[in-house]
């Protein structure tokens, strides 16, 4: 050991609160709503580096839309967005209860994150391809995908559109611009970049969009994808959903205390936006900016959506073991549904009575879909035909499959 040097120590990041502690968000510094400038879409990434460290916000504490990022949406568009978020939450609640009732083996809620998938799903076309992770069910719901079909996939019943080949909630719906979800974290980002590169190579007009959690940014796939996106100016939007927690580790384990996740784009020469993910209008505006950039051959944009995972990571998780129990209620950026509701009421375009009616209608829609799906069967009550496991794998069946099919009798 060298003389006069301290003993080395390993630093392990720790969150600001653990079970039993009072939630503490004093370390978070946010720009006031409307304070962050809106650069021209053609701005060079080097000249807008500060947008990776600030926070784009549109809705202020009184529910007013302020500043240069206000997308000035028609009230009817905002009402559709609000209803889609309400429906997404109602769907989540019923499916979570279905798991507790033994009707499915697994479920994942997106409580507190509804504005992200709903706003982005409304902006982009179904012909653009979304490469989601497992908390973007709002993308399908905002686009009118049948709720009963989603439930069939969750229950793995005889009408499961994926024929029992995927874990519950890992949907696949090409006609709705929803690429098959993968349980391997990070894979969707290089896939999105590759799809976007192919679209550009063909001279098409479709773009791609992907979502990844804060924890999965530590995967090599994420960094490989950023390299290709930058080098080939792929027409793609790369979202990092920073919801503060992976399954049991907080965002600091993935490097969230050293810098922002948006800042990871800077080293690759990509533009970055950091956005209040609980602000429907801010998500809309930032996505619109990135969409225009992609469609005009100016390349990819990385968007960090700053939000909070209110529910457990999944039905296999117990967040009370690693974070303060009421941390979600104290999240300083509020709830996306309540914030958009407040904004519409302030405009005179919504009311508490309409909110109550919308919530009741959402519950009824989900209940009706549940009856339709459960009539087909829940987990173990019905299942896709056994013969489907031999199909859609090879263009021409291998002799082993022929033999296995004969043994099974199908």
UniProtKB/TrEMBL annotation:
Residues 315-333 have a biased composition (Basic and acidic residues). Belongs to the BCKDHA family. This is 2-oxoisovalerate dehydrogenase subunit alpha. The keyword Oxidoreductase applies. Coiled coil: none annotated. Its EC number is 1.2.4.4. Residues 1-24, 311-333 are annotated as: Disordered. Residues 83-376 form the Dehydrogenase E1 component domain. It comes from Brevundimonas faecalis.
